[in-house]
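Lab channel / #folding
Pinned by the channel admin:
"Please post every new chain as: sequence first, then the structure tokens as a reply. Keep commentary short and put observations after the output so the thread stays searchable."

First post following the new format, from NK:
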Amino acid sequence: MRPILLKGGRLVDPSQGLDAVGDVLLEDGRVQACGGSIAGPDEAEVLDCAGHVVAPGFIDVHCHLREPGREDVETIATGARAAAAGGFTAVCAMPNTDPVTDNQAAVGFVLRQGQRAQGARVYPIGAITLGQKGEALAEFGEMIAAGAIAVSDDGKPVASAQLMRTALEYARTFGIPVADHCEEPTLAHGGAMNEGIMSARLGLKGIPAEAEEIMAIRDILLARRTGGHVHLCHMSTKGSVELIRWGKDRGIAVTAEVCPHHLSLTEELVEGYDTNAKMNPPLRTAADVEALQQAVRDGTIDVIATDHAPHHYDEKEREFADAPNGIVGLETALAVNITWLVAPGIIDVAILVEKMSCAPARLFHLEGGTLRPGGIGDVTVFDPGATWRVDPARFRSKGRNTPYGGRELTGRVRHTIVGGTLLHSDPT
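Reply from TO:
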């Protein structure tokens, strides 16, 4: 493996409190040296990073890679390569596959496919319940032994409070988070967008904010009862932010994520019945977007995750109410976050790196999230000022379902390095 010397970049690593111009040397798959002027070995590949940010590799704790079962819309290999193109050095694959990733064999399959993919690292997340049916717990111990790093029934809420309580107690013994899809199913049933004036005007059944918030506070209270770590997926409402803040103020082990689309878009996008504006949870109001942005800024929200959800073109070309939920996000996440958060001055680059790299590694107990010497050689280099226009036809992902197509965004990935190997490079 040829050493890599990253020269003259702005090193941003909140895990070390580092924000300074300098060099990074990667050798034998690890960070050999970081900071100041470094004279690398003669055989090193030198990358000029002047004017670019050099950060610990981004980690996406929430994506859907569709394999096994829906290889027509994404595979672990295409998803891992799309992740690398988006600056992610690692992704956590949700278990709502076919069959569901709810046993050690399924976890092992995802892990092996990820290792073969030659893209971002792939960490499997096991299901909370068998078949994601919400009836009986999956065998956490066996899945963790096989390589699972968390459990989740994402795509479906764990409706039973007793089952969720038991899951938190069980997961606590293994030191892993339980990531929950917060949705009270009877309130959300049949909904296609945010409930409000807009849904009434468009004639679409809405999903009220309370559907998310009821489950969020339930999970927070169960985490308080059990001492388990609950991680709330894709938060979307102002009320959820207030509840998470309440829990954190009381020392409850609750963490939360938000997606780039919920930080940038509102329900107004549904106006034209564009199914690329359909997701779950749905796009909410401008007040919700502002509350989520401030929650990222003040630390109430811990992580920014993509909820990358590819679908076939034909599936999205249906009536709005009948189309599947979800959009692709791996290749636009960085730029959306810079365009709507960093460029307007809501957060700085250090907070962005914390939410996309350091916090995901720390909370999910993963390697990475730091440029400390001796650490894993996963690095993301990006130009925070570069502008580009989103062309879905050029995505590495098989999915093209994005609401950002044709938009000009700011912030572009230049290099993605995984384990000291340069996997993606776009120096133009």
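NK: The longest helix spans residues 209-226.
TO: also worth noting, The two ends are 25 Å apart (CA to CA).
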